[in-house]
Q: What sequence folds into this?
């Protein structure tokens, strides 16, 4: 189908784009492999499929299971980074780098050579350092409460909550994340006790949100840190730019290059099968399908985004 490109946003039939994308991606429904290392995630229906797009003027289009909450997993790392950058600023970069790792999300190999300073804030080790900074001098419970309340305000939806079953499952299956945290701590790169930090990390990953809530909550990232609907300043343009560049270069671990090549938008995947992408100046897109590729990115979700970007020209490289 012929669709207007980004320059003609007001003429865009958003419903038609989302419907077309959904119909196209339905043949991929159930493809890929669900994350099995967190037992609770394996219980999710593999046939779930959802798309939500929210534009700067509030126009919203949904398809499939877009109102159903799912485990956001590593997508949470974008929001903890946003909060921590606002709290500590550039000092964060003494603790964590901003270079793609080219390694799986839970890899420990680079940590030894690089003396406990994780490559970037979007791999697990880096996100664990960010969670530690989110606790700061306060408690783990206060940090997680701050995050959940941030998401509720941003999504204009007070129903957002942590799935305690998933959090428990993650903690029970958390040997590798514990190893990463202890390794970082051994180099003096955590201020708080490992279990405190992990209790934030596991709970942030276990937050359940729908595609609609995710797209709405992250809209400020498409508009230089200002929520275009409420007019509120959420973060600075500088922090927003930094978050987007990290999403583009590191948002999908060792699949980040391929994602940038195919989709060309800053994005963040989670092993729950969600992908959040930001089209700067346009809006936010969230997709969900639990089957993953080898790097832990939703297989059908990436196909949907590829289709949508082809139709709309929303790639940052278009
Ligand atoms: N909670 C998951 C983990 O720590 C997050 C990984 C992901 O979504 N890529 O392993």
A:
């Amino acid at each position: 189908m012929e669709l207007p490109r980004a320059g003609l946003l007001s003429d865009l039939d958003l419903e038609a784009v989302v419907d077309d994308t959904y119909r196209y991606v339905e043949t991929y429904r159930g493809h890929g492999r669900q994350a099995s290392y967190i037992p609770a995630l394996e219980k999710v229906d593999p046939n779930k499929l959802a798309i939500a797009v929210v534009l700067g003027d509030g126009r919203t289009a949904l398809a499939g299971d877009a109102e159903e909450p799912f485990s956001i997993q590593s997508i949470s790392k974008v929001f903890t980074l946003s909060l921590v950058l606002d709290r500590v600023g550039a000092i964060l970069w003494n603790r964590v780098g901003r270079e793609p790792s080219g390694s799986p999300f839970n890899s420990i190999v680079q940590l030894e050579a690089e003396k406990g300073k994780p490559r970037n804030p979007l791999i697990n080790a880096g996100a664990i350092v960010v969670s530690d900074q989110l606790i700061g001098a306060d408690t783990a419970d206060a940090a997680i409460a701050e995050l959940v309340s941030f998401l509720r305000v941003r999504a204009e939806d007070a129903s957002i909550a942590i799935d305690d079953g998933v959090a428990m499952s993650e903690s029970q299956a958390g040997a590798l994340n514990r190893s990463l945290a202890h390794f970082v701590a051994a180099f003096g790169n955590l201020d708080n006790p490992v279990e405190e930090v992990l209790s934030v990390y596991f709970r942030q990953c276990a937050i359940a949100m729908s595609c609609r809530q995710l797209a709405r909550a992250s809209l400020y990232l498409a508009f230089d840190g200002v929520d275009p609907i409420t007019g509120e300043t959420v973060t600075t343009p500088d922090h927003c730019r930094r978050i987007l560049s990290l999403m583009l270069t590191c948002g999908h671990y060792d699949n980040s290059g391929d994602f940038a090549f195919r989709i060309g938008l800053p994005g963040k995947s989670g092993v729950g099968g969600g992908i959040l992408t930001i089209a700067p100046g346009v809006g936010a897109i969230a997709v969900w399908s639990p089957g993953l590729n080898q790097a832990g990115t939703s297989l059908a979700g990436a196909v949907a985004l590829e289709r949508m970007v082809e139709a709309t020209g929303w790639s940052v490289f278009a």
Remarks:
- Strands lie at 50-55, 60-64, 70-71, 161-162, 207-209, 267-269, 274-279, 283-288.
- DSSP finds 13 helices and eight strands in the chain.
